[in-house]
Specification:
Tetracycline Repressor, domain 2, 9 helices, mainly alpha
Amino acid sequence: MSKNVDLKRAKILEVAKRRFAHFGMAKTTMAEIAKDLSFSKALLYYYFPDKHNLYMAVMEHVINEMIDKVDIYAQTTDSVENALLFAVESRTATTRENYNLFEYSSSLFMKNPCEVGKNIGPYFNRVRDQYSRLLKIGVDNKEIRVDDLDETAELLLFCLMGMRSGILTKDLNDCLFPSPEEFEHIQSKQIKMVKIFLRGLSV
């Protein structure tokens, strides 16, 4: 793929992300995105055959940005706790900033879990691998002792995911995605969980 094509694709993803995040998936059309880009619809369809395909690419783009942001921060700290708390806070901030984008992914998952899992599933592995790298900061600094970094990172990630699910299932009518008001409550619980988890690993 040429550099020019890469730049055009990146521009499409950024513009589509703003539209999806502001208006949501249902109220956004490919024609509006093409107009924002000053592209013809034909050119937009050349890169992405339909809105669903574009949406999934935007989701991946946002997730990659979030993971990259945490990796950059991890290079500036020698504290495993600071690194993990930054990861939790960044995930919350990214989800809140792109609320309509992520909310649609939850409703899409309810309708077609296999299709969404196929596209978003690898995200879990990437976050687990990142948490493994963050835990290694603590191991290298002799803050914590970990026998298996990948397994421990996976356990921590399951704990954090389960915390969100546990809070949301108090209202069985809306158990997949938090309301804007619930983000702060969930994040505060996740922060406490990270601190408890690290205490259990401390040397």
